[in-house]
Design brief:
- There is one protein chain.
- By secondary structure, the protein is mainly α.
- It has one domain: AhpD-like (Up-down Bundle).
- Helices cover 66% and strands 0% of the residues.
- Helix 2 packs antiparallel against helix 7, helix 3 packs antiparallel against helix 4 and helix 3 runs parallel beside helix 6.
- The model has no long low-confidence stretch (mean pLDDT 91).
Length: 145
């Protein structure tokens, strides 16, 4: 057996990851990161990792926070659209860099749109989101209509 539900098999580790996630949410708020931008980052990281469970969850969360279907439709090619602000572009580029280590500076749009505190908070968000994706993918969390 090489597939198990990791959160059920080791609930204490799951709780620790959830605690880290909550701590990162506090860091994002302290850095002035809009909760909707955090959802966009979670969606992009989940796209890169191929995590259907997290994609569905965070797309629904983004819509509930007011995100548009047009922006959600083009987030996978955010650099080719005019839908995103400079701060959003910088955050999405950072999400790709942290997720796909090492990455060439293909989408390096950090022109100072993010402060050092915001870069750190978003980097932690991406690190935690990568962990959640891997947990969901490895545990084969169900994603049914």
């Amino acid at each position: 057996m090489d597939t198990v539900n990791l959160s059920k098999q080791h609930p204490e580790q799951y709780k620790l990851l959830a605690g880290l996630d909550a701590s990162v949410a506090s860091a994002l708020a302290a850095a002035g990161i809009d909760p909707l931008l955090a959802e966009l980052v979670k969606i992009r990281v989940s796209q890169l990792n191929g995590c259907a469970f997290c994609l569905r969850m965070h797309t629904r969360d983004a819509i509930a926070k007011g995100e548009t279907t047009d922006r959600l439709a083009v987030i996978a090619a955010w650099w080719e659209s005019q839908y995103f602000t400079e701060q959003e572009k910088a955050a999405l580029a950072l999400a790709e860099k942290v997720t796909e280590l090492p990455v060439q500076d293909e989408h390096d749009t950090d022109d100072g749109a993010l402060t050092a505190e915001q870069v750190s908070a978003i980097s932690w968000l991406v690190i935690v989101m990568n962990a959640w994706n891997r947990l969901a993918i490895r545990s084969h969390y169900p994603v049914a209509p």
